[in-house]
Amino acid sequence: MKQVPEDWQRGLVIVAHPDDVEFGIAAAVGRWTSQGKHIRYVLASRGEAGIVGLPPGQAGPLREAEESTAAKAVGVQEVEFLGFPDGRIEQGLPLRRDLARAIRRYRPEMVVLFNFGDISASGRPNSADHRAVGRCALDAIDDAANEWIFPELGGLPIWSARWAAVAGPVVTHAVDVTESVDAALESLTAHGRYLAALSSQSVAAQARAIVEQSTAPVEGFGAARAVGFELFSFRD
């Protein structure tokens, strides 16, 4: 099992909702920011449809605030919300264009994505939002490098990322997160109101169980705690 390349300085994490990063990627982000890497988050939605019993007008600002706090726990200061409708994000050109715009603006060498396969980590059918955002983001990496696909982005120079790392069921590379598990736990715990609505179990207990599962050892990779990714290369 190979290590995810770390000879880069700018990273962009693209996900659908607040909490997606914290459910599997945050420990890797914490490692990378501790190395001095500059990482930004782009979220397609504000997560406004994600809390049972809390109307979207209240849930959206709350979840934005929780995500901003969660990001800071692993060293990320910049979080952008694109405002696509939570639960109704469609795979298509508008989303690809907005993600290509973000990639051109932030010029990442590494793009990190959440699982966008048909099956989630729990074994259930994956969220339609996850599928749409991940697939459009992978396409948008190429779109950002092509001056002709979205000519309306002509004010932003084209940009070619080097890699995309997808935290999904297929694992080709891994990251040693042994030293950043505590930061990941703090990051997930920031989603207190969201987690409280998911289960009668305490927020702390839920967060610990999720982080322990998402940072379990990866077979063939010599680290006590690790996060696995499928790595895609776009240029040398």
List the helices and strands and how they pair.
Blueprint: E1 2-3, E2 10-15, H1 26-34, E3 38-43, H2 56-73, E4 79-81, H3 93-106, E5 110-114, H4 128-144, E6 163-167, E7 173-176, H5 181-189, H6 192-198, H7 203-214, E8 226-233
Parallel strand pairs: 1-7, 2-3, 2-5, 3-4, 5-6
Antiparallel strand pairs: 6-8, 7-8
Helix pairs in contact: 1-5, 2-5, 3-4, 5-7
Task: Offer a quick outline of the entry.
This protein is an alpha/beta fold and 236 residues long. It contains 7 helices and 8 strands.
Distance between the termini: 20 Å
Extended strand count: 8
The neighbouring-strand order within the major sheet is 1-7-8-6-5-2-3-4
Give the class from helix and strand content and strand pairing. Answer: alpha/beta
Radius of gyration (CA) equals 17 Å
Q: Supply the number of helical segments.
A: 7
The arrangement of helices and strands along the chain is EEHEHEHEHEEHHHE
Strand portion: 15-25%
Q: What shape does the CA trace take? A: globular
